[in-house]
Amino acid sequence: MKFIPNLSFAECWGEGCFMSYEQDEDDQYNAGYDVGSFPKDFGYGPFDQDGDGPPGPLVSEQKPRILLMGLRRSGKSSIQKVVFHKMSPNETLFLESTNKIIKDDISNSSFVQFQIWDFPGQIDFFDATFDSDMIFGGCGALVFVIDAQDDYMEALNKLHLTVTKAFKVNHGIRFEVFIHKVDGLSDDYKMETQRDINQRANDDLADSGYDQIHLSFHLTSIYDHSIFEAFSKVVQKLIPQLPTLENLLNILISNSGMEKAFLFDVVSKIYIATDSSPVDMQSYELCCDMIDVVIDVSCIYGLRDDTEAAAFDCQSSSVIKLNNGTILYLREVNKFLALVCILREDNFDRQGIIDYNFLCFRDAIQQVFELRNENQVHLPLTTNHHSNLASNQNTTVNLETQNAALNAGAVQN
Ligand SMILES: Nc1nc2c(ncn2[C@@H]2O[C@H](COP(=O)(O)OP(=O)(O)OP(=O)(O)O)[C@@H](O)[C@H]2O)c(=O)[nH]1
After folding, report:
1. Minimum-distance ligand 1 atom for the alpha carbon of 80
2. Is the CB of 222 within 6 Å of ligand 1?
3. Residue nearest to atom 26 of ligand 1 (CA)
4. Cβ distance 321 to 256 under 8 Å?
5. Quick check: 178 and 218 in contact, CB under 8 A?
6. Structural domain boundaries, residue 99
7. How far, in Å, is the centroid of ligand 1 from the Cα of 76?
8. Best of 91, 92, 183 to mutate for ligand 1, by most ligand atoms within 8 A of CB?
9. Which of 213, 224, 260, 303 is spaced 20 to 30 A from 178 at the CA atom?
């Protein structure tokens, strides 16, 4: 069973189930099922147009694209499988080498709709069949994976070649470098590797006159939460409504006495927004573990044999009290999104107020969905830089209305 720090008491209620128990840590370890093992059938199904948060008219060719590139065996397919398909990290040992571009549609919620293209490591940009205009043209982010456990000089050459080629075609691409497989490295060595890769990659770009290319670096491993955190940041940059979501979360936490709030995509456990206070890894891990607990308990005890109910639905909600006086509180926002917040136990005394504020928050999120869908109907859909800016402006104008609505509804805790 995966470690759940400080969990001393948990109450969870999901689809058709109510459960309350107290147990010590030893009992939890002996519980006989793996909390980290997200049920594999709990995944992205076909999107239900009538469900909460309709997806809007994005057809697959128009969805922002995230490209996964890097040398052979650097870990590209493993990342995609672990983050979006619930593969356990150990199973990736048996993945075969990718020999053609694999396109994966991630259509899980209104905000998070994109395609991931997993490239074979040996791809040759100078091959006549490589259509760089088509591949880089509609690309939102390019994730370049470097194996930090291997000699990375060849990877740096390939990184340079890749980003300069992509930048020539599309100036709006965001370049994200995953310094990957850092699980085998000491903390000092990790930092040193990141510094060295950062310096060399940027020097190479400056030497060839590409100072304007900005690279973001992330230390990642599929064996811990770092890969989910890094992917959260990549995906967030593709969500034009991010400032609106952050603002709504800021208003929610300041009116409800919360310390931190994350808006999670439940299936992948990437967070699509959080309030503007800094994210510490431990809080993020706690919230991820909470989602695992809720879905597992709901799958085991919440589903009735005779219905086709989902493990996460409008009744999904959970409170976990930690033994350090902190509360984790999860509420369903829509079919694919959950709000997970961290707050002090004293501030949870007036749960009614928090719940009321949450309903205001959920309404506001719903309005953002509706606005986005209206924009999609009226605006031509492209994924380039300029269209993102345009929809950002629309969102900003409407943000004032959203904030006013939430402020009017929010009750100070
Ligand atoms: N230690 C460690 N190993 C990893 C990690 N991620 C992937 N691997 C391993 O790296 C090996 C290669 O992974 P793949 O995902 O097949 O690599 P790829 O980049 O898709 O390879 P190609 O398809 O040949 O381009 C596998 O044995 C994985 O188990 C990681 O974070 N840490």
Report:
1. 15
2. yes
3. 93
4. no
5. yes
6. 65-238
7. 6
8. 92
9. 260
Q: Give the ligand 1 atom nearest the CA of 95.
A: 16
pLDDT in tens, the chain (413 residues): 332 332 222 333 233 322 222 333 333 333 333 333 344 444 444 333 333 444 444 444 567 789 999 999 999 999 999 998 889 999 999 998 888 888 888 776 556 678 898 888 777 776 777 788 888 888 899 999 999 999 999 999 999 999 999 999 999 999 999 999 999 899 999 999 999 999 999 999 999 999 999 999 999 999 999 999 999 999 998 888 899 999 999 999 999 999 999 999 888 888 989 999 999 888 999 999 999 888 888 777 766 665 655 666 667 778 999 999 999 999 988 878 899 999 999 999 888 999 999 999 999 988 887 777 666 655 443 333 333 322 333 333 333 344 444 444 444 54
The verdict on 91 and 228 lying in the same domain is yes
DSSP letters for 75-136 = SHHHHHHHHHH---GGGGGGPPPP-SPEEEEEE-SSS-EEEEEEPPTT--TTSTT--HHHHH
Cα separation, 154 vs 122, in Å, equals 12
Say yes or no: 78 and 201 in one domain. yes
Tell me how far the alpha carbon of residue 237 lies from the centroid of ligand 1, in angstroms. 25
The domain that holds 291 is classified in CATH as: 3.30.450.190
Same domain, 339 and 352: yes
Amino acid 215 reads: L
Three-state DSSP class for residue 1 = coil
Q: Could you tell me the CATH number of the domain that includes residue 220?
A: 3.40.50.300
The alpha carbon of 83 and the centre of ligand 1 are apart by a number of angstroms equal to 13
Number of domains in the chain: 2
This model's pTM is above 0.80? no
